[in-house]
Structures are given as structure tokens and as C-alpha cells.
Amino acid sequence: MQCLTPPGVGSQFVLTLKIGHVESASDDFDNGVITFQYVAPTVTQIQPAIVGTSANVPATLTGNNFGPKNDTNYVSADFSLHRAFGCKHQSTDVEVFGCKDCADSCFLEHRRNIATSCTVTVADTEMQCTLPPGVGKNLEWAPIVGWQRGNTVGSNRISYVVPAIASLGTARGLSSLQTRGDDVMTLAGTNFGPVHKHNRILASYSNNDTGKLHTFGFDAASCAVTTNDVEVQCRSAPGVGTNLHWEIDVGGQLSAVSEPHTNYSVPQIDYLSPSNGPTGG
Predict the structure, then answer these.
(1) 15: enclosing H helix or E strand
(2) Which of 31, 227, 262, 270 is deepest in the core (most CB within 10 A)?
């Protein structure tokens, strides 16, 4: 006997044969009841591939087995670091919300960026979703159709735009950082990502690009986004030096070196003892 399946989605359908008024089998899976499932969805192309960290823009996913275009076909999608189900899926060269290490509690919370308002726009081959705010690069899509989680085929990934520093600010002035550190620095720019406890921000500053004989480099402390996408605050490190240009790392993506720079305060001698001495030294 041969039958044609209708368009659909899902898995674990129990096949029941009805001849006359007699039905075969039951729903007892332990007794070897034959089941049927539709093929899980796959994504083969994503547009756009790069978005700003504020997102809330539509994305089109092209692929296979998205199911029919109707109101009863509920579809969804998320994107993350290799679907981030656990450490075995982890890549060491990509971060999501700053999570890179299996010991990282935020990675163990499987940081997934959840797309919203997903619908099938072309039966079986195209769906559209709205992208959430976020950070990161090379994030893999996972479409979910009929409770079956799919994957992305090939190298198709989505990335948020690399951060950029436009200006620096501090209450003491950019040329008067305390050598003991702990000045509050404000970095203004773009694509810093959302205010979120798992959006871990790293910042550093150095004069390595000046070509001077003596170079200095420091890591800022306690960096966090204070205004979605456009402002980060850090505390300066103890240090010395001038012409210190800043870089910021958001979601594993490093900004270009800032054009504005900072200087530590110049040394000042307040007291000298003894104030005189013999001519012989």
C-alpha cells in the first residue's frame, strides 16, 4: 500500500491504518508502533548577514523544510554560538555576550539570541523574523519548525557590527588621569550592545602606535554599557604615560584604535630632602 503525506511539520506521528471500520495499532510506543516525522528545517542563506547591535530589524532566512504558509504553522528561531547547547559545541575563537569559557556561568546558561515574530513567507523555503538587540560574531541560526530544531548549512552566519569609539571623557580631563588609577572613563561611540549583565565589555589603552622608545599599555577595569549601544564606562588602571589610545572589545569583536587619547598626570616634586649638599657629591 502507498499513501501520499500532506504538507506538514513535526515528528512522532503515529501511523494508523484504517480498513473499513477497523483501525490498526494503538498509541503504545513500547510495542513497536511505527511513527513518521517530517524532515527538520535547515537554513542555507541569511539576509542581512551583519546588523547593528540595536537590531530590531527584519531578517529573511532561506532554506528547506520550513513547512506550509498558514496560521497554524508556528515557527521560531534563535541564533547563538554553535547553538550553544553545552561546552561540546563551544568554539574558542567566537564569543556571545562575552562568554568564551566553559567555566563561564553565562555560557552554561546557553546564551541564545531569540528572534521574534517569525513567520513562513514562502512555503517550505523562506521565513522572516525580527532580530533582537545583541552582540557577537559568526552566530549560527537554529530554525524551529513543528518542535524540531534545525541548523545552518555551510558558513552562513550572522554578526553584529564591530564597535567604534568616537570620544572619551572623564571628570579630571583627558590629560590628567591619576597615576594610581580609578578614574571613571566614559567611552562614547556605536555598537556597544545592550545594557545587559552578560554583555561583558573589555577595554584597554596604550601608546604602542606612537613609535616611541618607551611604550605603555593598560587594561581598564569594571567596564559596562551604561547607555544601550552608545556609551560605556570603565575605571582607569594605575599607570603612567601619554598618548594612550583606547580599544574596546564587545562580544569578541575589537574596535579600531580611538583617535582621541588620554594622558596620565605629569609627575610633580613637592619636597626635596636634603635641600643642599657638599660639592663633592
Answers:
(1) none
(2) 262
